[in-house]
Design a protein that fits this description.
By secondary structure, the chain is α+β, with helices and mostly antiparallel strands. The chain has helices at 17-26, 66-70, 76-80, 91-99, and strands spanning 3-8, 35-44, 50-58, 86-90, 104-107. Strand 2 (35-44) and strand 3 form a beta hairpin. The protein starts with a strand and ends in a 5-residue tail after the last strand.
């Protein structure tokens, strides 16, 4: 089975808790990220409303917390996400969830 992360970025509040939890779990140095929250906006749309989105993006340093997952626990970013926008699971199931959820994405780690 192949596992990954489902992220519904439409509800991410930009709290950066996933970043902090990942950095502590993997002892990452300043400037290194296993997951990094990017900011898109704010910008005003043609209809006068505003768009401001946070995008949690796993990097090449993400291994989905393989040691934790091997112990039956969730990856640190999922465990600590305050907005509950992340899920960990089998790619096939996460892809089905993504098809029903606008503003979402499924990530899988890149074999290194």
């Amino acid at each position: 089975m192949t596992y990954g992360l489902f992220i519904d970025y439409g509800y991410c509040t930009g709290c950066h808790t996933c970043e902090v939890a990942c950095k502590k779990e993997h002892h990452l140095e300043r400037g290194q990220w296993g997951i990094h929250v990017l900011q898109d906006g704010p910008r005003q749309k043609e209809d006068g409303s505003w768009e401001f989105t946070y995008l949690p993006l796993p990097t090449s340093l993400c291994d989905l917390c393989s040691e934790r997952v091997g112990e039956g626990r969730l990856p640190m970013c999922v465990h600590h996400c305050q907005a509950g926008v992340m899920e960990f699971g089998e790619l096939e199931e996460l892809t089905k969830l993504q098809r029903r959820t606008p503003n979402s994405v499924v990530f899988r780690p890149v074999a290194g």
